[in-house]
Amino acid sequence: MSSSAAPAASSGLSDRQDAQRAPGGQDSGLGRIIDGKALSESIRADVARRARELAARGVVPGLAVVLVGDNPASQVYVRNKAAACEKAGLHSRVLRLAADISEQALLEVVQELNRDPAVHGILVQLPLPPHMDAAKVIETIAADKDVDGFHVSNAGLLMTGKPLFRPCTPYGIMKILESEQVALRGAEAVVVGASNIVGKPMAMLLLAAGATVTLCNSKTRDLGTQTRRADVLVVATGKPGIVTGDMIKPGATVIDVGINRNADGKLVGDVDFESARRVAGAITPVPGGVGPMTIAMLLVNTLEAAERSLQH
Ligand SMILES: Nc1nc(=O)c2c([nH]1)NC[C@@H]1CN(c3ccc(C(=O)N[C@@H](CCC(=O)O)C(=O)O)cc3)C=[N+]21
Ligand SMILES: [Mg+2]
């Protein structure tokens, strides 16, 4: 692919964005890389501003994160969430529980957080150890503190068009599409992966925005036939490289939710980035795409829970 050697000067673009501009500003044949990190920072700045307004009214938004066991990836995510809270002026509390804690003891911890007026949002980090029934734990969280949006009440409210908390990853993806000014009314949207956490709520949000939605799963026959119709393609399977450039409609917006560590320890998505970028109009990178938006929307949900606490 061609890349301009022109100096970045005052273009205001990152080196990476500048490198994909062909001489004369013509289309270089490479899709734009969507900067989820920059967008997440502007959302977090907005959260910080609203948190200051709340603080002036005597309310500091509080998030409680419950971490069971010592999964190293979970440790990192939980630390990042806590740091993002502090930076935005939200209070965060991390409860670290031993991997062998009983399910009953965990349920009691959640019930205590439900009663605590300083806690506006509760997140129980997944996955939970195998001896726990994750659904039972999630259903124990008060629906009006369920900032993940995983509780059946919140899933039902989303499905019936009256969402309280939107799950953070799909919500962040909607913010990306909005900021990219992707037209969704009447558009073909294809979601690959039908989890309760990403794929299913993603389909609901896209549907509510007027897209025609196809939800694919691990049994979908000839996946490429589905994905090639997509104006907006969201991939959330946990399978690196499941979508390649030949499966993408030219000009499509491609959103990669996967976070996989490859053999050399590098983070990669579910989409084969190099081949996809030659076809897509715009694409999210991994890292720096969807991941930072997930955390930003967790802050938004927590802030809004605190704002609602003032309304009654
Ligand atoms: N109850 C619950 N809620 C969750 O929201 C939840 C969870 N459990 N369990 C684990 C997953 C995973 N998750 C991520 C959030 C941010 C990044 C993120 O910021 N990723 C960075 C890179 C991070 C890195 O370098 O490892 C990026 O994509 O740029 C990743 C993953 C939230 N999760
Ligand atoms: Mg990412």
Automatic annotation (TrEMBL):
UniProt xrefs under InterPro entries:
THF_DH/CycHdrlase (IPR000672), THF_DH/CycHdrlase_cat_dom (IPR020630), THF_DH/CycHdrlase_CS (IPR020867), THF_DH/CycHdrlase_NAD-bd_dom (IPR020631)
Q: Could you give a GO molecular-function term held by this entry?
A: methylenetetrahydrofolate dehydrogenase (NADP+) activity
Q: Which UniProt keywords apply?
A: Amino-acid biosynthesis, Histidine biosynthesis, Hydrolase, Methionine biosynthesis, Multifunctional enzyme, NADP, One-carbon metabolism, Oxidoreductase, Purine biosynthesis
The reaction(s) catalysed by this protein are: (6R)-5,10-methenyltetrahydrofolate + H2O = (6R)-10-formyltetrahydrofolate + H(+); (6R)-5,10-methylene-5,6,7,8-tetrahydrofolate + NADP(+) = (6R)-5,10-methenyltetrahydrofolate + NADPH
Alphabetical list of PROSITE patterns matching this protein: THF_DHG_CYH_2 (PS00767)
**Biological pathway:** One-carbon metabolism; tetrahydrofolate interconversion
Ranges for domain Tetrahydrofolate dehydrogenase/cyclohydrolase catalytic come to: 34-148
UniProt: NADP(+) binding residues: 193-195, 259
Q: Under which EC number(s) is this enzyme classified?
A: 1.5.1.5, 3.5.4.9
Please report the stretch or stretches of sequence annotated as the Tetrahydrofolate dehydrogenase/cyclohydrolase NAD(P)-binding domain.
167-309
Q: Which domain of life is it from?
A: Bacteria
Entries under CDD domains matching the protein: NAD_bind_m-THF_DH_Cyclohyd (cd01080)
Per UniProt, the ranges with Low complexity bias are: 1-11
Specify where the region named Disordered lies, as residue ranges.
1-32
Quote the NCBIfam families the UniProt record gives: PRK10792.1, PRK14186.1, PRK14189.1
Q: What does this protein do?
A: Catalyzes the oxidation of 5,10-methylenetetrahydrofolate to 5,10-methenyltetrahydrofolate and then the hydrolysis of 5,10-methenyltetrahydrofolate to 10-formyltetrahydrofolate.
Subunit-level organization: Homodimer.
Q: What family, per the record? A: Belongs to the tetrahydrofolate dehydrogenase/cyclohydrolase family.
Extract the PANTHER family matched here: C-1-TETRAHYDROFOLATE SYNTHASE, CYTOPLASMIC, C-1-TETRAHYDROFOLATE SYNTHASE, CYTOPLASMIC-RELATED
- Protein name, as recorded: Bifunctional protein FolD
Which organism was this protein described from?
Answer: Candidimonas humi
Q: What taxonomic lineage is listed for the species of origin?
A: Bacteria, Pseudomonadati, Pseudomonadota, Betaproteobacteria, Burkholderiales
